[in-house]
Amino acid sequence: MDTWTFGWTLALIGMGGTMLVLWIISLLILLIRRIFPYQANDSATKKG
pTM, whole model, 2 decimals? Predict the structure, then answer.
């Protein structure tokens, strides 16, 4: 394998791995939002 082939392979695997990790993190965030839904605080809404 020459230098250019190795470089492109490493770059593509790196970018693919980064996208995979970001996708997994987004799934975890969605899961956490379903487990712990947002509830507005009553004191914050009745300010004034």
Answer: 0.68
